[in-house]
Design a protein that fits this description.
mainly beta; Immunoglobulin-like; six-stranded mixed β-sheet; 3 helices; 12% helix; rod-shaped
Length: 286
């Protein structure tokens, strides 16, 4: 009999406990679940750019927002009580999640960004040539000069899109570019020998200067100066060229008497006087 009383006691106690537990927080048990959808106004997610979440559904009562950074194996709580969150550097490379709940309803509804948080956009390039480049001097009538080759590197974290190469300055027509446009360059990439610039042929004597510019969208712009000097040549023309041989120089008398027969007065025997033997006239008397 005693055992029966004990079993009945525990049974009654258990039933009362269940009733007490069920009725201890009747408000919670009365909360209905809500339905709806969370979405983002933004299409891109970058550091420093506020992200706004919106809810479409039947939630009632005070709403609470909670943001999370989704890392491998865990969700890191960020800020709450606002449907707007501004990503920071720690969020780079991870998606973020926005969750909403209501005071009058149970449960929560959330959405996670399809894209990873990206860093602040940064656009820039560098050129292998900076400052000023001086081509070797040339003498007027020079042959084709050696071109200057330029490499371009993307120093930003975004693609450059297309780039424009141009010559500026009073002497821009004294030089020639190999191209005036370039395709986009990805972040961290370089394009060796992206373009060349060279002085034109047949320039007159003088110094020629210009500025080479490389520019594109998002305020991308770099430049350097170039210079080329041409020295004049001076020449004269002579009426005589090669080697000139002057005639053999002799006295007029010897030239006249060379190889000739001189006929002297009859008291003398005619003589053949070979050149260049000297001629001696004996005394003559009448």
């Amino acid at each position: 009999m005693k055992n029966i009383h004990i079993k009945v006691f525990f049974a009654i106690f258990t039933v009362l406990g269940l009733i007490f537990t069920t009725c201890s927080n009747p408000a919670d048990s009365a909360k209905p679940a809500f339905t709806g959808q969370v979405s983002f106004i933004n299409t891109t997610f970058r550091v420093g750019e506020p992200v706004t979440a919106i809810f479409n559904g039947n939630g009632t009562g005070e709403q609470t927002w909670q943001w999370y950074r989704i890392t491998p194996g865990t969700e890191v709580e960020l800020t709450s009580n606002s449907n707007t969150y501004t990503p920071v550097d720690a969020d780079i490379g991870f998606p973020i999640k926005a969750s909403i709940s209501f005071a009058d309803q149970s449960g929560s509804i959330s959405a996670t960004t399809a894209q990873l948080v990206a860093p602040v956009p940064n656009y820039g390039i560098s050129l292998s040539e900076t400052g000023s480049y001086i081509f070797p001097d040339a003498v007027q009538g020079y042959k084709a000069q050696m071109p200057l080759s330029v490499t371009i590197t993307n120093t930003g974290n975004q693609a450059t899109v297309s780039l424009t190469v141009a010559l500026l300055g009073e002497d821009e027509n004294a030089f020639t570019l190999s191209t005036e446009s370039l395709n986009n360059i990805n972040p961290g990439s370089s394009v060796p020998n992206a373009f060349t610039v060279i002085p034109n042929n047949d320039l007159d004597a003088g110094t020629y200067t210009a500025t080479v510019t490389v520019s594109g969208g998002n305020n991308i712009s770099e430049q350097f100066n170039i210079s080329f000097s041409v020295t004049a040549t001076y020449s004269i023309a002579l009426s005589e060229t090669d080697t000139y041989t002057f005639p053999l120089a002799v006295s007029a008398l010897m030239h006249l008497m060379s190889g000739l027969t001189m006929i002297l007065p009859s008291i003398y025997t005619p003589q053949l006087l070979p050149y260049p033997a000297p001629i001696i006239f004996p005394p003559y008397s009448m």
